[in-house]
Amino acid sequence: MFAAPIGHGAAASANNVTANAESDVEDEISCNEVDQDGAPTEADIMTVTAELVFNEMPSHLIYIYDDYETTTLIDRETLVDLFRPELIRVCKDLVSKDKLHDVVRQNLKYAALSHRWLSVGEPTFQEMSAERNHQSTRPGFIKLRNFCQKAREYGCRLAWSDTCCIDKRSSAELDEAIRAMFKWYRNAEICIVFLADSSSISDFPEEVWFQRGWTLQELLAPPRIKFYGRNWDELSRSRNDKEGHSMLEALSQVTGISRQNLLYFSPGLVDVREKMIWASKRRTTRIEDIAYSLIGILNISLSVAYGKGERAFRRLMEAIMQACREWQILAWAGPHSSFQASIPRSPLAYCAFDEASANILLPDRYIMDRPSKLGDPFFTMTKRGLELEVILVEMMLQQPAPRQPGGTRKKTQVIRLISDSASFYDVTAQCDMTFLPFSQWAIAIVNYKADESGKRGGIGKLNPTSDYLCFVLGSSIHSAYGGWQKVETQKIVTIRTKREVYQQVTTVWL
């Protein structure tokens, strides 16, 4: 059953809950002499506790009583006060402060639930906060009770579930939860995954959990994870499924994520294109969550604002381009953002490559190429668009196929661009010809070998044995600022040279 929440009614006084644990800690520090070199004082213990709770743990947690069935929802202030006597007792005999943080963390460990939400019937924050016992037989409450039982079996008296531990009425709390969720899953003692559609590992290809956007970070973030099937049966014999060979193999096959990343994933703006491909296989109910579910994976700061639709992903991509230095983030094709032609509409754009372009995008290859100073690492978004240094090669358009008598020209056609220079092969690309009233054409080569000077406006080098990523560009008297515009192609476009080429790079704004 779910008991009345501590700190939200009469039970608060029974548990001697203070209104603000942080101020208590400050008072203790001022009133107690701190021994800098010896054993920790009570003030030291509560300072470390408050720092851990307020900076590294969720804003609300479920406290699970010793009977494994009774639970109550508590906030951070209540958590500090509730565990104060125990932490002081456990830590007072430590001979050094060095281990204080680890001891406190071990006593405040929590389990996190990863699951697919039910269409109706999930327990809410308001229901969990109500001052009454809950013995509901709704599927969502049954799932929560099973999760809490598993959490206690892993030695956790605290548990977190995104359905009922976030006060979604508070925009500040919701914003913090979305920004910090990756960290909360990473800090969990165990991530318990409930797969409602699976009875065994063989069911993974059809399991909806692997198709949802938010569960990507819930798979990558936790160092320890345990999968349970539809009847809450264990799907392996391991206590940590990231240590099981057969489970890791199954996870890698169904997600396309390497075992290395499943085991040792590090968030950040490295291999961004690969992370976008992972995300492209997943869907979210709210279109904004395509972007927000990647915040923690990319370790990027982005304000949360629902109702913005596709603008959320555009803002994510703009933030990425301001900090990312990998030319591979530019290797996409297909529909662009409605607000910016140099930004893809969604992660699906990073899957638009064929056999000809796949070789230059292999992770094993471009990891090796990073020290080679390929392309312009200082591309950035400006008011004029994406500012980028490229090798620009002007070309002539071979006219598309004419209309057949009595017919109409196809909307999407393969075009051929021909260079006056004897150094370049022709380029072909499949484009939407409906809105391409360009009088000038060019290709912009992105991943040329940059010179060693590190200066802007240098000389780029192309080798005849390599394929290069390029953009198709068009220009006309109607083009913004009289400059080049990026032409939308259905697949990533590459070019190859006939001989070694050295050419001055050109700055374009796309």
TrEMBL record:
Where does the record place the Heterokaryon incompatibility domain? Answer: 110-200
InterPro entries per record: HET
- PANTHER family under this entry? HET DOMAIN-CONTAINING PROTEIN
Name recorded for this polypeptide = Heterokaryon incompatibility protein-domain-containing protein
> Which taxonomic lineage is given here?
Eukaryota, Fungi, Dikarya, Basidiomycota, Agaricomycotina
